[in-house]
């Protein structure tokens, strides 16, 4: 297959960075199509751990073109900081293309995010505070700026003047800091100069690449259940992480994507507010969290931990057509004696095997579990499926049976090499 899309099947943080890093070593182009620096990938690459936020995971592989596509919201200051940080870690090649259609995230978006969350109090969404929501709002209301505007100073100033006339009133109402055009221009100066050569029409580049049969990996950011339309609204992000949203976010036709590979953890996690039917607390949650390093790449917040949720996974596979899945962090579950799997929900005396459409209903569901034994041994050095403990293989087979998907890859450790390939997808 020439083009593969990666999609997280849970609430994000499924280990997509590692899978993308694996595919990137075989790809010619890696594309990030939505979200901003609220997302992040932690990647163990040749023994070095990298934290990526805006840059696609292909940045760690020489010769790969990395595209920040149309549907992204890009904080130019944060992007430049990320490039500087990676240079400090020894990354030398920055073969990147930045869409001139991508939205620009500015300092006042971050301030708006902060003061709004504070005003919501207990009703807060649980955002990362990076300004993502306010930036996407500006895109929808047609008062936002795009990366191509950074190349036209006179027009950029004009757009900032009209935008700040509205934004400063809103900031004043919340008691937040207000901004002048000059302050924003000064903050952008270094990033504008550095990033200008990389800004172009990436949709034209990608359409030509597809036409030429280039190997392209569409990198997933966040997870399906954070989709603004199909996720656990309102506790979602401000864009759609679904693979079905990639065409509109890249300027490609539907036929451009050959296959979608789903990514799931061997258990569940989420960050922020909202219902979490299989959530755990106490010693088991702490053991899984610590073994799996379940702390936010961007925020450093401890992630909420729970058992695998089959109704959730079937729902995601159903709306995006996922048939092949990468199972991540399987090695983490050797810290427990017994593993539970949620197979269905009960609500108001009725059994359902899907996610209800409202968070009120989701908060009321009662998960039904089955239990399987853990393997209680270190599997991180195992390189073949046949060598896995029998209980481990039984857990994998049970997931396939319950979700109706085929597990094509199994991750047994953080490094790219700690991966068992059952079916080559790319």
Write up this protein.
The chain is an alpha/beta fold and 426 residues long. 32% of the residues lie in helices and 22% in strands. The chain is built from 12 helices and 19 strands. The longest helix is centred in the middle third of the chain and has 21 residues, at 153-173. It is globular. The protein starts with a strand and ends in a 5-residue tail after the last strand.
Determine the fraction of residues in helical runs and give it as a percent range: 25-40%
**Protein structure class:** alpha/beta
Using only C-alpha atoms, the radius of gyration works out to 21 Å
Number of helices: 12
Approximate shape = globular
- DSSP strand tally: 19
Cα separation of the termini: 6 Å
- Return the average pLDDT rounded to an integer: 93
Beta percentage is 15-25%
Task: Report the biggest beta sheet as strand number plus sense, adding barrel if it closes.
Answer: 11 strands, mixed
């Amino acid at each position: 297959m020439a083009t593969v899309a990666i999609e997280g099947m849970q609430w994000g943080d499924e280990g997509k960075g590692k899978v993308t890093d694996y595919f990137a070593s075989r790809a010619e182009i890696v594309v990030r199509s939505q979200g901003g620096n609220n997302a992040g990938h932690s990647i163990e690459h040749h023994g070095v751990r990298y934290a990526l936020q805006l840059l696609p995971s292909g940045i760690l592989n020489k010769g790969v073109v990395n595209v920040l596509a149309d549907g992204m919201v890009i904080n130019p200051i944060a992007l430049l900081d990320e490039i500087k940080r990676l240079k400090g870690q020894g990354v030398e090649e920055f073969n990147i293309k930045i869409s001139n259609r991508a939205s620009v995230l500015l300092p006042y978006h971050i301030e708006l995010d902060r003061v709004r969350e504070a005003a919501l109090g207990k009703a807060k969404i649980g955002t990362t505070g990076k300004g993502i929501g306010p930036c996407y709002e500006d895109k929808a209301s047609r008062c936002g700026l795009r990366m191509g505007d950074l190349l036209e100073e006179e027009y950029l100033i004009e757009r900032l003047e009209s935008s700040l006339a509205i934004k400063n009133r809103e900031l004043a109402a919340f008691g937040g800091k207000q901004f002048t055009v000059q302050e924003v221009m000064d903050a952008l100066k270094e990033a504008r100069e550095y990033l200008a050569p990389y800004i172009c029409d990436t949709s034209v580049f990608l359409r030509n690449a597809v036409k030429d049969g280039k190997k392209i990996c569409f990198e997933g950011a966040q997870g399906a259940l954070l989709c603004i339309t199909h996720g656990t609204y309102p506790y979602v992000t401000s864009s759609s992480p679904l693979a079905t949203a990639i065409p509109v976010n890249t300027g490609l036709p539907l036929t451009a994507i050959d296959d979608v590979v789903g990514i799931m953890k061997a258990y569940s996690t989420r960050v922020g507010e909202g219902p979490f039917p299989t959530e755990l607390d106490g010693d088991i949650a702490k053991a899984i969290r610590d073994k799996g390093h379940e702390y936010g790449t961007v925020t450093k917040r401890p992630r909420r931990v729970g058992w695998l949720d089959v109704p959730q996974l079937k729902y995601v596979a159903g709306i995006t057509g996922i048939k092949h899945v990468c199972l991540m962090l399987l090695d983490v579950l050797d810290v427990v004696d017994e593993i539970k799997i949620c197979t269905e929900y009960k609500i108001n005396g009725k059994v359902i095997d899907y996610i209800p459409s409202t968070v009120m209903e989701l908060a009321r569901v009662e998960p039904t579990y089955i239990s399987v034994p853990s393997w209680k041994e270190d599997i991180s050095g195992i390189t073949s499926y046949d060598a896995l403990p029998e209980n481990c293989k039984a857990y994998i087979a049970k997931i396939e049976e319950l979700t109706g998907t085929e597990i094509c890859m199994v991750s047994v450790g953080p490094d790219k090499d700690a991966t068992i390939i059952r079916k080559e997808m790319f």
